[in-house]
Amino acid sequence: MISLTEFTPLIQTNIKTFSDLETGYKKAIRDVGLVTPDGILSDWLSSGSLYGVRLNRNTRGVVQKILLDYKRGYLLTRRPKAMAALIARYDKLGFNTLIHSGDKATPFGRALLKAFGYEDRFRSIEKKGLWLASILNIKVCPYCNSQYTMVVRKRDGSSFGKFQFDHFFSKDRYPYLSISLYNLIPSCASCNHKKSNDQVYLNRHFHPYHDDLSSIAEFHVKYPADPSKMSLQQAMKLKVEDIVITFRPRVREVKQYVKVHCDLYDIELMYKRHTDIAHELLVKAILYNQHYQTATLSISNLFPSRKVLLQYILGNNLVNEKINQRPLSKFTIDVARQLRLIR
Predict the structure, then answer these.
(1) Where are the beta strands (DSSP E) in the chain?
(2) In whole angstroms, what is the distance from residue 24 CA to residue 32 CA?
(3) What is the mean pLDDT of the segment spanning 202-223?
(4) pTM listed for this prediction
């Protein structure tokens, strides 16, 4: 639900922009200590066999085209729309049916996935894509905004990852995109496993590098009574099981788009467990009303702005630029705005 439009690296690096990241990513793929995909594909064409899979006339044509596109730079750093266009082009050529059949990859498809080396580069204990995740430094899952997705530093200086890379375009269906930069989404295990190898489409499903779902959808809380007319005593007596949380579109035109995301990642089911937080926000809205805020801000040299004061009251980020830094930021902002705690 949260777009990835900027990043603040966790490590010392000269990479500051997505353009820098694309250049650095290509270099990292070459320097990670493994044979690059083009080298393996070239060997496959020369020997005719790889991982026990022999090429025939059709599959040889697939490898030749993928190798050419890799060398042209079409695979590693293509943006989401360009990846979708590439998939469509390969579909017309009949490539994807040779790679994936029914609900599983063909032997040729599995060999192609190995050739691109995703397992070695992103799933091994030593690497696990930490070099990419440390640069992106995305601390919260962009699909649900409820679980941490962090790189953690140990005292000895080593790191490990508390995240998984989701392939927006399934690596089993499209192994030629298995190490594409914008196809690797740092996500929580829950969202990654729920989505699994489901077939998704860029025009129907949220892609963090392509869309901003948070701007067109919002969390809304239905309380048993009108929050604006509730006293503190009444609010304190509410039962959390009577509170209902929904994730809804802000405009009718995107209703289906929001529903697809909500169903795919179980958003409302997940946030149903956070009715206690919705209750706390209601109590805070009554306690720390506009009069309290104004009085507190009148104290000299305490809080530089209302936004900073509210951040301490709510215990979460209140700016869109930092929404990927703490879990439940989107939920907190939406509900606080609904309760008029923030304007």
Answers:
(1) 49-50, 53-54, 100-101, 104-105, 150-153, 159-162, 164-167, 184-187, 217-222, 244-249
(2) 12
(3) 93
(4) 0.89
